[in-house]
Design goal:
The complex is a heterodimer of chains A (247) and B (270). By secondary structure, chain A is α+β, with helices and mostly antiparallel strands. Chain A has 9 helices and 9 strands. In chain A, a hairpin with a 5-residue loop joins strand 5 and strand 6. In chain B, the strands form 2 sheets. In chain B, strands 1, 2, 3, 4 and 5 form a 5-stranded antiparallel beta sheet that branches. In chain B, strand 2 and strand 3 form a beta hairpin. About 4% of the residues of chain B have low confidence. Classes of the chains: A alpha+beta (247), B alpha+beta (270).
């Protein structure tokens, strides 16, 4: 794990050059960008995303890393115009989720952990375009990556009070996810979430809220601590709802 | 009115600006569907790695889900883009072939070895591996070898079956269906004809065999419904939709229990 991550920090990037737009619809004007160290990113500017989505990405990334969800590396960039961008590491050799590749997945537990993350942060946006399948060097098997947690409802402090036991709706979740194959990973990630110290969760939330200039960090922290504590229960229900919706 | 097409380009690395044409979507006037023109060049000559070839294979398979020329199907992913809309001369009778012959082919045609991932039998075996029952499934059931006592006149016209599991008193004969190519209808017809022949023989001899058509994950929901409906009239056969968890679980369990029942028990040792 990145050593910076151990302290709950989000890496920052100093200099970026945009290369061109990401040829996918509904990406908040995402562009490919490259930094001074040659690292390749998908960049979304906060002004295109809105501050809640920016916060959702940050929170999702921090919590996702803590519970073992396979998310690309992340970073923040402050542009010369004073606008923040959320950077997600560019993953090459990918296609979007396709049920025909369900038996080629190397990390079904990772896909399960992504579902756990979505349930905890109330992200209803795990459609096929937000699950990347990266072919491995053998050209045969592929690794799952999750992208785009910006729609997570946890980033809306005025709306989440009292939503401790709510779940995201399943109608947008990609078709053909083999729940039986990934559920072990979901349960394991939920257990990891339940074991997170409240102080660590509070630290993540405050850090993300500082970057996103969100003043109601305490509200979000309280809800997220509660949701993590009961993650195992939430995920049992969510998996059953997913099973129903996949029929 | 002219037929039109848009070339599909693979982007090996969005940071290099390179584009590789890998196929095309073709729309003919009066036709409701979209044609897919495929590359007739070995992919290894265009891109370097097995990973890139696999992505292109997947991109091209996804093209068959295209509804029109305005956009690529979502499952093609972020490394494929459409070129501009272009016209095909009015006198061309086979627009897809024309695009393959004159737009996409720049080198001599080469037979491309199909990736096992997209191969029907390979996709089925991969499913059995994923769910831990691969060891219970054998490949290529040949009736004359397994049923030597049945008169050759009855079995000589039976084609081999892709996968099978041997039990104590019954045998499971299994044919996978995949949705990755435009050969789906042909495969459907072949499997139907093959299992019809088995069904007829099984009605005449005292053998317990179960004919199972299993639909590997993929394709769109309407395609899957059509295939299931197409096999409904097949006697003595069941169709299993592997995208349905309950059917998938029951199928895996059936394979496992049948195979275990057919394994010789070891003598008790004191």
């Amino acid at each position: 794990m990145d050593s910076a991550l151990l302290f709950g920090e989000v890496p920052t990037v100093v200099e970026l050059e945009d290369v061109g737009g990401v040829p996918v619809r509904h990406t908040n004007n995402a562009v490919y960008s490259i930094d001074e160290r040659g690292r390749k990113w998908v960049r979304k500017r906060e002004t295109d995303m809105g501050s809640e989505e920016f916060l959702g990405e940050l929170l999702g990334w921090l919590l996702g890393n803590a519970i073992g969800a396979p998310l690309p590396g992340g970073a923040i960039h402050l542009g010369p115009d004073g606008v923040y961008s959320w950077l997600s590491e560019s993953i090459n050799g990918v296609v979007h989720w396709d049920p025909s590749l369900a038996n080629s997945i190397l990390n079904p537990e990772g896909l399960g952990a992504l579902l756990a993350l979505d349930a905890i942060i109330l992200n209803p946006d795990r459609h096929a375009g937000n699950i990347l399948l990266q072919f491995q060097a053998d050209g045969d098997s592929c690794k799952v990556w999750g992208i785009d947690q910006g729609m997570a409802h946890i980033a809306y402090p005025n709306e989440i009070t009292g939503s401790e036991d709510e779940l995201p709706h399943c109608r947008n979740v990609a078709r053909g996810i083999p729940i039986d194959l990934v559920s072990e990973g979901t349960v394991a990630a939920a257990t990891r979430a339940a074991q997170l110290e409240p102080s660590r969760i509070r630290g993540m939330v405050h850090l993300a809220c500082v970057w996103a200039r969100e003043p109601k960090a305490d509200v979000i922290a309280q809800v997220l601590i509660s949701r993590c504590a009961q993650a195992e229960t939430l995920l049992r229900v969510y998996l059953e709802q997913l099973r129903q919706s996949q029929r | 009115m002219n037929s039109t097409y848009r070339v599909v380009h693979f982007i090996p690395d969005p940071f290099s600006g390179a584009r590789v044409p890998v196929g095309a979507l073709v729309k003919s006037p009066g036709s409701t569907g979209i044609g897919v023109a495929k590359l007739r060049v070995a992919l290894g000559k265009l891109v370097g790695s097995a990973r890139e070839i696999a992505v292109i294979d997947q991109v091209v398979s996804s093209l068959f889900a295209a509804q029109d020329l305005s956009a690529l199907p979502a499952s093609t992913g972020p490394q494929a883009v459409l070129g501009p809309l272009l016209s095909i001369p009015k006198s061309v009778h086979d627009p897809v072939r024309w695009v393959e012959d004159f737009i996409l082919t720049r080198q001599e045609p080469v037979a491309r070895k199909r990736n096992e991932r997209l191969n029907r039998q390979g996709a089925g075996l991969r499913f059995f591996s994923t769910y831990g029952v691969r060891k219970h499934v054998k490949e290529k059931f040949a009736p004359k070898d397994f049923w030597p006592r049945i008169p050759a006149a009855l079995t000589q016209n039976l084609q081999p079956v892709s996968h099978w599991t041997e039990g104590a008193n019954e045998i499971l004969l299994m044919e996978p269906i995949v949705f990755a190519d435009r050969g789906l209808e042909r495969v459907q017809r072949e499997v139907f004809a093959r299992f019809s022949a088995y069904s007829q023989i099984l009605s005449q001899v005292d053998l317990k065999a179960t004919l199972l058509v299993y639909l590997v994950q993929g394709g769109d929901a309407s395609q899957r419904r059509d295939v299931i409906s197409g096999f409904r009239s097949l006697d003595r056969a069941a169709t299993i939709d592997l995208e349905v968890e309950s059917e998938r679980q029951a199928f895996i369990e059936k394979v496992r229990t049948t195979s275990i029942a057919g394994q010789p028990t070891l003598p008790q040792s004191n």
